[in-house]
Structures are given as C-alpha cells and as structure tokens.
C-alpha cells in the first residue's frame, strides 16, 4: 500500500520583505529562466509581503498572476517527502492488521472510516495488549464478532445459517469435555468449537446452542445440518484445529475495538519544530497528516525526521537577513541574485551569487536570459521592463547604468512597448497618495539598514505634487518619530523625490539628524532639509551616510 515517494523539489524565488516592483518582477523573471535552464527543480516565484499599488498595476497590465505570499521559510510538514500512507479500516480484523504490519514492516498505522477520514491510530502495542487481555476470554456477549470478518480471517465457510446471522456472540466453549459435562454447561446462544462427534452436535442443537464451529475441515452429517436448519443454529466449518480456531475467533475483533481514538494529527503547514515536539510526546512516536476535513494525507514517524528538513530558496533583490522573509536562516539558500551592497546572509555550503551594481535586479535577470538566448514571453518582458523602470525612476537615477538602458530597450522591443510612453504610464500608476495614512506611505518602500553600529530606517517615496507632502509633513514626521522609538532606530528618514523636478529632492528626518548634516553638508531645520541630486537611496543616500559613520 506504500507508493514510491515523489521527492518534492520546489525552490521559492523570493525578494525582500517589503516587496517593490523590482523585487517581485525579478522573482517572476528568474523563476521563468530557471524553469527553462534547470529541470532538477520546480522554481516558484514568491513574495514576502503585500504588493504595492505600482506592482499590482504591472501584474494586471501584463496579465501576470501575483506570486504567492510566503510569511516564513521555516520548514513545514509539506516539505517532507510524504509517501502514500499504509492505513487500515476500522472494521478490519486485528488478525488482518497484524498480517499487514508484518508484510509492510510497520509498527503503527492510521485507522480510517468509510469516508477516508481519520478514526484513530493503532500499533503493535495495541495488538499485544489485546492478545494478553484476551487470554481466557470466553464470552462475546458484549463484544460480538462480525461473521464475515471471522470467515475471512480463518478461511472458513458457513454450512447452515437459517436465521441469517451476521454476528457471533455468546460464551465460547471448546467441546473437549465429556458429553454429560458439556451438555450440563451449555447455555442458550453459546458458541461451541468441537470435532465430528455427531451425537454431541445433535444434543447441543437441542440444548439451544447458537453456533457450532466444526474444526479440522471435518465433514458434517446431514442429520446435524437438518436439525440446525430447523432450530436456526449457525454451523461453520473451520479448516483449523480447535485451539487455532478459537485464536482466529478472537483475532477477528475489529480494529476499532483496540485502536486509540486520540492520535496526534497535524496539517501540511504545521512547522517541523512543532511536529518534532508532538511526535516525541506521542505514545506512538508518530503523527497523522490530515486535511481540514480529517481526510488522511500522510503518516510521519520519528524515522522520517532523522534527516534535516529545509525549504529551498533563491533570494533576489536583497542579501541581508533584516530584509529577508522570516526564518531565512532555516532555509537552504541555493542562489542570491542582487544589485545591492553585500550584506550578512551566510550559508553552510558554497552557493551561486550574482551581485551586479546595476540599477535593477531585473536588469541582471534579463541579461542572463539574453546571454543564454532563452525565449522571453511578452508578459515576462513586460514585468522585467517594469522592474527596471521602477527601480531606476525611468532610467534617471544615478544608479542607472548603460546596461540598464540597453536591456530596457531590448525588453521594450520584445514587449511591443514604447519605452517613453510606457514609462509615463507606469509613473502615473505608481504615484498615488490618495487617502493613505502616514504609516502606509512610509511602509510602502521602507528599508532597514544596519551600518557601522547604527540602526537606520529609510523610506522613499515619489510624488508629482510636492504640495501634497507639504500639507502632510507634520503627520509624516510624527510617524517617523513613533517608528524610531518603537523599533529602536537611531535615525528614521523619508526621501521624497519628484521625478519631474530633479531639484526638489528632500528628506524628512527624526533621530540622529547630524549624520545627514555631515554627510551632505546641509542644515536640518525642523526635521527636514533638501538634498538636490540625491535620487537613489541605495547609491546616493546610504553610501554617504556610511562614509560619515565609518569615521565617527
């Protein structure tokens, strides 16, 4: 009943925890590239947070489904190589259970009902307890046995069943006594196991015996069968000796009578850390995997957890733990594709790292596709182009390189777009303050940076109308201060950029504002200042701040 396990080979291609368009689109593009060039895995684009409005626009514009959101890379039950579980039905006999366990080499099995739902769990310990407890058992009155199960268990056959009996119940006697003793002992409805003594058989039928089980496959006389039909006595032929027949009778008890009805149940998304604890504290050292309707999916024992279990991931557009999805340290990182400064993510084994200081991770991904001459569908070209235009502010930021421009032009040609016209379309879709709260505006593109012992929180936002920010400056500063205090930042900042007026770059600040004053030779007044030409957080702002802190 155990199928060959199908090894799960899913690799999540995922960006940072505050996904922007470059992060999401590079994950989509790189997953597409890897699925073509590497058949050893299934690469799935993913995201580590909510999509912003610009990214939603891009995905809808190119009819591209949003990557699944992943909150954590901690391994779960779904990451195990689950095989089809060996299970038993609650109506199966204890004998058939024992044979199954011997044949399959298992010590424990889940029990299911007619609907395939989990009814309990049973193990060798339950069989042993039952077998020991059944020693000397001579009464089935309160624990009747299914006739069909008994017949299948011992390979017997019915010779007479005028009353259409379906269950065996009553006291169990072996006809080893002298004739008189046996007849004086018999009660109406009893079950008697005996040989081919026809005279005794007839007397037992007359005395009201409910069932006669004739052993060793011995023939039964016509007179016995005639009387049995008249009195409604059940007559069964057993191919086994008396002792074995009684054992088969007892082992015909249904599994439901010995199983535990309180198994350890887990779901596909139960963390492995929790699974280990539950298995350790389980009497059966195992757990049943079931869906939301208690249908059996899999079965896990301690042996299945001997090898480490990890999710596999490729990180794009980041390489720092503080920017990564939760529990990234528990995952097996296969690759890092990025364009930022080198961060602090470490791996146990050597991995492929492509960190290229261009304006967008999508430029890196598209460049690899062109290099390997991979076919780029129109929709993939569209999202990659969007990532480049978004991260370089329509190819205007100081981080923009000639390769960004070249790749963007090639992608626009593949997607059938005008670079200029689509850039304006994307810009208008991405800049929308509307009724968003100050917290939402700051969180939309927020990055935590740890540099030279300082913890900084830096947000960036594009606007087309600077008056909108002027009107909301007070609440934005209040939120920056609240965030600084609650998260323990040394400084929080919000870079505000108007792409149509390159001289209007400004920054709102809270905390150690002296860092910005020294880095850009400006004066911060009332928690704000202008920084002309500072368009890029990554290339213009953070490096200048880092140089100041390195000598502080």
Explain what you see:
- This protein is α/β, with parallel strands linked by helices and 552 residues long.
- The protein has four domains: 10-75 and 311-430, inorganic pyrophosphatase (n-terminal core); 88-131 and 256-305, CBS-domain; 135-252, HprK N-terminal domain-like (Udp-n-acetylmuramoylalanyl-d-glutamate--2,6- Diaminopimelate Ligase, Chain: A, domain 1); 438-551, DHHA2 domain (Diaminopimelate Epimerase, Chain A, domain 1, Roll), CATH 3.10.310.
- Helices cover 36% and strands 20% of the residues.
- It contains 19 helices and 24 strands.
- The strands form six sheets. It has a six-stranded parallel beta sheet. The chain has a five-stranded mixed beta sheet with strand order 8-13-12-11-10, sandwiched between helices. Strands 20-21-22-23-24 form a five-stranded mixed beta sheet.
- Strand 10 (172-174), helix 6 (179-185) and strand 11 form a beta-alpha-beta unit.
- Helix 1 runs antiparallel to helix 12 (378-391), helix 7 (198-206) packs parallel to helix 8 and helix 12 (378-391) packs antiparallel against helix 13.
- The longest helix is centred in the N-terminal third of the chain and has 17 residues, at 21-37.
- The chain is elongated.
- Residues 1-6 have low confidence and may be disordered.
């Amino acid at each position: 009943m155990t199928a060959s396990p199908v090894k799960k080979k899913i690799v999540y291609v995922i960006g940072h925890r505050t996904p922007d368009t470059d992060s999401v689109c590079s994950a989509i593009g790189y997953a597409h590239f890897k699925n073509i060039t590497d058949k050893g895995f299934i690469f799935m684009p993913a995201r580590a947070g909510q999509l912003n409005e610009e990214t939603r626009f891009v995905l809808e514009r190119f009819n591209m489904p949003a990557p699944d959101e992943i909150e954590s890379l901690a391994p779960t039950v779904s990451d195990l190589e689950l095989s089809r579980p060996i299970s038993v039905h609650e109506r199966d006999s204890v004998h058939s259970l024992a044979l199954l366990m011997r044949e399959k080499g298992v010590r424990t099995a889940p029990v299911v009902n007619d609907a395939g739902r989990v009814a309990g769990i049973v193990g060798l310990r339950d069989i042993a307890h039952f077998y020991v407890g059944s020693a000397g058992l001579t009464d089935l009155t309160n624990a009747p046995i299914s006739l069909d199960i008994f017949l299948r268990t011992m390979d017997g056959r019915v010779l007479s069943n005028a009353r259409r009996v379906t269950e065996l119940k009553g006291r169990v006697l072996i006809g080893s006594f002298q004739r008189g003793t046996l007849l004086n002992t018999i009660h109406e409805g009893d079950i008697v196991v005996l040989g081919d003594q026809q005279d005794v058989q007839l007397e037992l039928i007359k005395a009201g015996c409910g069932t006669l089980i004739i052993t060793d496959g011995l023939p039964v006389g016509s007179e016995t069968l005639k009387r049995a039909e008249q009195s409604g006595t059940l007559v069964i032929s057993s191919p086994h000796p008396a002792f074995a027949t009684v054992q088969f009778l007892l082992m015909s008890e249904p599994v439901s009578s010995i199983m535990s009805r309180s198994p350890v149940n887990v779901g596909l998304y139960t963390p492995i850390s929790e699974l280990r604890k539950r298995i350790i504290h389980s009497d059966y050292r195992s757990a049943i995997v079931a869906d939301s309707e208690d249908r059996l999916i899999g079965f896990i024992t301690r042996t299945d957890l001997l090898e480490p279990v990890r999710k596999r991931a490729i990180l794009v557009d980041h390489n720092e733990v503080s920017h990564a999805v939760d529990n990234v340290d528990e995952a097996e990182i296969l690759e890092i594709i990025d364009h930022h400064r080198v961060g602090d993510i470490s791996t146990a084994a050597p991995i492929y790292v492509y960190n290229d200081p261009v304006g967008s991770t999508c430029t890196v991904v598209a460049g690899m596709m062109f290099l390997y001459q991979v076919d780029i569908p129109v929709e993939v070209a569209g999202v990659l182009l969007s990532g480049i235009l978004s991260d370089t502010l329509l190819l205007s930021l100081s981080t923009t390189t000639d390769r960004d421009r070249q790749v963007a032009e090639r992608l626009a040609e593949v997607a059938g777009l005008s670079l200029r016209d689509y850039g304006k379309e994307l810009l208008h879709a991405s800049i929308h303050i509307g009724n968003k709260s100050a917290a939402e505006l700051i969180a939309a593109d927020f990055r935590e940076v740890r540099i030279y012992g300082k913890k900084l929180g830096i947000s960036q936002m594009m606007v087309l109308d600077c008056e909108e920010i002027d009107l909301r400056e007070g609440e934005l500063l209040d939120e920056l201060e609240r965030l600084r205090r609650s998260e323990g930042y040394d400084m929080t900042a919000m870079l505000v950029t108007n792409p149509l007026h390159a001289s209007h770059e400004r920054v709102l600040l809270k905390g150690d504002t002296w860092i910005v004053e020294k880095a850009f030779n400006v004066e911060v007044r009332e928690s704000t200042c202008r920084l002309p030409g500072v368009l890029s957080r990554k290339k213009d702002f953070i490096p200048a701040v880092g140089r100041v802190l390195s000598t502080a």
